[in-house]
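Lab meeting minutes (informal)
Scribe: AK
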Amino acid sequence: MHYTKSNEETENLGSAFAKNLKPGSCLSLVGELGAGKTTFVRGLYEGLGGVHLELVHSPTFSLMHQYPLAQGFLYHLDFYRLDYFREVLDLDFEDQIKDNITVIEWGNKFLEMRDWYTHQIILEVENGGVRKISMG
């Protein structure tokens, strides 16, 4: 369990967590709107060696962003606007997961996905704006 008090601390936690990842890792990010999911991904991208942090923003409307790494990509997806698992399959990103790192916001939305995840990150906002972050 980790607690962060600012966006910078949340990014730093994401950056440190990136050291645990290898190609094929797929993360489920769970948390309400404003919980810091995209902020965590920004830090993760930096920790993976990403140099264009300004690229990292929520893919809520585009559904998927691809960020370049020295080797491969970080795929950043958002299932918030999806209603059916078939819509996930229509994104046709399964092949990219194998050799890259994938992060899915609202990853808990479809139970069919649970076997795809190597890690689950749960972000909660507590009183005073402190983020409680569980990483597994």
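Next up, CB showed the second protein from the same session:
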Amino acid sequence: MPVRYWFVFAAVFMPLLLNGQLTSPGAGTMRYTSYPSSPGVKDPVFIYCSQTGTESGTLTSTRPGGGGPFTFKWFRWNELKKSFSDSIKTDIGVTSSTINNLAEGGYKVDIESSGIPDTSFVGWIAFDKPPYVDAKLKNPMKHCNYVALDGDTSATVKTFRYYDKVTGIPLNMRNALTFTWSSEPTSSIPHPSTEIDPITFSPPLEDVTYKLKVNSLTCSSESSFLYESIHVNADFTVDPIEGEAPLEVAITNTSVRGYIYTWDFGDSTFSDLENPDPHIYYKPGEYTVLLTIESERHCIDSLRSEKITVEPSFINIPNVFTPDGDGYNDLFMVESKSLRYISMEVFSQSGFKVYGFSGEGESLREWTGWDGNVNNSSRKATPGVYFYIIRALGWDDIRYDSKEYRGYLYLYR
């Protein structure tokens, strides 16, 4: 019976015993007999854990219903005579009686009231010992992808002996074992209480102590060993994961126990640095970063990043702006994404060029648009209709130079 049930068992049965039957203070657990000659008779078997071999048992008896005083006569089971024939103690004029320093065997108490037999109880004392337990690696050769644990255990005391009270035939009650694997610090152990030789395919990335605890009916034993990790874990983050071209992505490596690094950025470029420089994606599209690492002991792991999206090129041209200094719509600016190059010219209705810009790279990123002044001077262009010509090239090689990018805009003050 598993350890977790012992206390439930005691909570259910001990109140009944304390109300007036036979108890055994200090016993670790209690079971009941199964006599072939008397199937309906269930006497308690009190089991102690014997750590040193010098432990002894105790029995206490009270009469159901109380009252008294009574005479308590105690007897021990005689294996040769096959009966409770060995008198060991008599208590006269008491309401309860206790016998101590008991060896393994059967005991009977007869309770008399005014010399008349009143009640009898039988109990058996048995001693368990800590079970054998050994915890180690299944294979001394460590593997990169898993940890196989090897547990070995057996009951030191296989059975507990008692006797059929009618026939004197010896009977055996089997001991029972339960076990639990654990680790410090905590790591993955599949089915730690049902598989004595568990294998984890989520091996620890740090050194851990594996421990196997085994419980018999009343005793427990432990065995442990230190496991020095050899496992690798490829891990990194990318930021940002979305934006216009050219998109600069920072890569933070948090891998464990890597020695050789191979980075595949998904755009036909690679790196073997432990901590690569930020990577720039020029072409719109979707990419992933694949990291493969290898340890000094040739353990290998890999990880692919989440999807990185470089947005396609895009242009949107407004047709009205109001450079009046109110902070709203003061600039004629082309809304765009992922452009490699752009040029813009603005002409008055008479054909006079009032503004021009062309740029790429840093100048394109810093460009703020036309502020409504003539050719970047302090002279303000008069309100009215103007004509623009825009030419651009996206990082996805889309050209913006058709008639759709020539049109009229309205300047209001």
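CB comment: Confidence is low (pLDDT under 50) at residues 1-19.
No objections, moving on.
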